[in-house]
Amino acid sequence: MANVSWGKKLLAIAVACCACAMIAVPAYAFYYVHSDEGVQVESKGVYEVTCVLDETAQGGAVRSELVIVPEGSTVKDLLNEDVMSSENQNGLEAIHNYDVTSLADYLAGKQYTATVYAAETQKPGTQTTHDGQGTTGEDTQLNRFDNVVIKVA
To answer: Is the pTM of this model over 0.70?
Structure first.
């Protein structure tokens, strides 16, 4: 670097700083949001919860998705956070239709049960949390990686 002009040295330093910043900021943000320590100390964070909607009793399908809810949420909060899009259209109508409804609005007037299976009840070597005992009710507190199964009667 002794024979390099001052401008090129400055450019190399700027590029190195930008590269470090691009790596450090996302890494810090990921740790801050997903760290259990950050959730406990500052009560900031989100929980990843799997939500399964089973409408097979009415001849419908089973729908499953990952829902991100704030820490401290209940099943009732999950129903308001989860969004369903209009999936009954084809072609350009489907592309340009941005109608959405919450899962709570979709289930209004229907008989259903919501069961929460805690992630820590999953037995080793199995693919599902349904091995454990579930907790039924909309006031059930959600934890990270829980599985919520909603069965429509």
So the answer is: no
